[in-house]
């Protein structure tokens, strides 16, 4: 079986929630992590009709203290009406007990500003990165047991 998620070798611990032209959501139960990838341009809310339901399903498969790796590297600026969906999803993960979020920012400068506005206007615990590898390493270090 082929995994579209390059972030984990334990394929049996992965639950693929959504894979479409706008986004992908994968839950790695072993890591207690959600992988959220935003693809390109979302024209309007109708382009992502199951977005919030997909997030509900993803969060339901995690335990409190989960982490999220959000890959926005190919995101193109979204219409303002979609900001509401992102904020509802953020509230959902905050309420469910997200520990930390690693964001890989878009290369498009305007999309980068928009992505930053999604997070700076919320209480989401996050850090921004320029690569998936850096983000994954940071999250793995946070999840590693302490030797103290």
What would you say this structure looks like, in words?
With 148 residues, the chain is α/β, with parallel strands linked by helices. It has one domain: 2-Layer Sandwich (Transcription Regulator spoIIAA). Helix content is 32%, strand content 26%. The protein is built from four helices and six strands, in the order E-E-E-H-E-H-E-H-E-H. It has a six-stranded mixed β-sheet with strand order 1-2-3-4-5-6, sandwiched between helices. Strand 4, helix 2 and strand 5 form a beta-alpha-beta unit. The N and C termini lie far apart (40 Å).
Summed up:
The chain has about 150 residues and is α/β, with parallel strands linked by helices.
- Please report the number of helical segments: 4
C-alpha Rg, in Å? 14 Å
- Extended strand count: 6
- Derived from helix and strand composition plus strand pairing, the structural class reads alpha/beta
Write down the domain tally. 1
Q: Please report the distance between the alpha carbons of the first and last residues.
A: 40 Å
Helix content estimate: 25-40%
Named at the architecture level, the CATH assignment is 2-Layer Sandwich
Blueprint (SSEs and pairs):
Elements: E1 14-19, E2 23-28, E3 33-40, H1 51-60, E4 67-75, H2 83-96, E5 100-104, H3 109-120, E6 126-129, H4 132-143
Parallel strand pairs: 3-4, 4-5, 5-6
Antiparallel strand pairs: 1-2, 2-3
Entry keywords:
148 residues; Transcription Regulator spoIIAA; six-stranded mixed β-sheet; alpha/beta; globular
């Amino acid at each position: 079986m082929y995994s579209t998620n390059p972030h984990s070798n334990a394929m049996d611990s992965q639950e693929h929630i959504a894979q479409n032209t706008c986004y992908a959501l994968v839950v790695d139960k072993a890591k207690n992590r959600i992988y959220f990838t935003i693809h390109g341009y979302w024209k309007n809310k109708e382009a992502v009709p199951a977005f919030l339901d997909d997030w509900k399903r993803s969060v339901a498969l995690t335990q409190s203290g989960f982490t999220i790796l959000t890959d926005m590297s190919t995101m193109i600026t979204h219409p303002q009406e979609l900001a509401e969906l992102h904020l509802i999803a953020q509230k959902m993960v905050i309420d469910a007990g997200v520990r930390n979020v690693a964001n890989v920012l878009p290369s498009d400068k305007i999309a980068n500003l928009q992505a930053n506005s999604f997070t700076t206007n919320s209480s989401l615990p996050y850090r921004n990165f320029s690569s998936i590898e850096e983000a994954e390493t940071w999250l793995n270090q946070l999840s590693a047991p302490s030797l103290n």
